[in-house]
């Protein structure tokens, strides 16, 4: 398991569009996911210890952000070949068991993760109402274990600011997580 950190925020970069199947049986696009005040695009998976440590906080924060007009979507881009826990069926089961309040989509070709420049799970991309990037940072100071419940909610506070002003904070701390499990390119 390779641990990586996300790059700094490329302010005002446009959100790449997508058409991806969700565990709910629907195909979702960027516009269908967007909220009135913004969109949080999260690259997560089922097996990553970093995601497992904070999934309850992700659910809490996305529910609270939805009330502020910021919707969320989770995308799973790992190659499930070596990680059966990340299979589409297991994605559906996890989403149902935890009651995800956001669409959970599979990026089988990994093209969406590449278009966004996602590098790890979890990887958070926070967009304003115009779908311009304003946040590329961590959820909070959790790592493989959840941090103290009273730590600053970096992602929530940043996206609340985006909902209120359209702009994210200048100072952002990178997210940390497991590397995305890329498919091996066939050699010729």
UniProtKB/TrEMBL annotation:
GO terms for molecular function: antioxidant activity; oxidoreductase activity. Gene3D superfamilies: Glutaredoxin (3.40.30.10). It holds the Pfam family AhpC-TSA. PROSITE patterns: THIOREDOXIN_2. Residues 163-188 are annotated as: Disordered. InterPro entries: AhpC/TSA (IPR000866), PRX-like1 (IPR047262), Thioredoxin-like_sf (IPR036249), Thioredoxin_domain (IPR013766). Residues 9-144 form the Thioredoxin domain. This is Alkyl hydroperoxide reductase.
């Amino acid at each position: 398991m390779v641990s990586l950190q996300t790059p700094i925020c490329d302010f005002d970069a446009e959100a790449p569009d997508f058409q991806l199947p969700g565990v709910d049986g629907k195909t979702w696009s960027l516009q269908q996911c967007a909220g009135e005040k913004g969109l949080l695009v999260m690259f997560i998976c089922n097996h990553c210890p970093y995601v497992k440590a904070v999934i309850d906080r992700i659910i809490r924060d996305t529910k609270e952000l939805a009330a502020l007009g910021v919707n969320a979507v989770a995308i799973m881009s790992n190659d499930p070949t070596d990680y059966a826990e990340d299979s589409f069926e297991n994605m559906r089961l996890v989403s149902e068991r935890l009651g995800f309040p956001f669409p959970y989509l599979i990026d089988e070709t990994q093209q969406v993760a590449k278009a966004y420049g996602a590098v790890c799970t979890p990887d958070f991309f926070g967009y304003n109402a115009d779908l311009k990037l304003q946040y590329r940072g961590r959820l909070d100071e959790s790592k493989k274990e959840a941090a103290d419940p009273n730590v600053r909610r970096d992602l929530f506070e940043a996206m609340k600011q985006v909902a209120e002003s359209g702009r994210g904070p200048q100072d952002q701390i990178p997210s940390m997580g497991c590397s995305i499990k890329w498919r091996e390119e066939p050699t010729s």
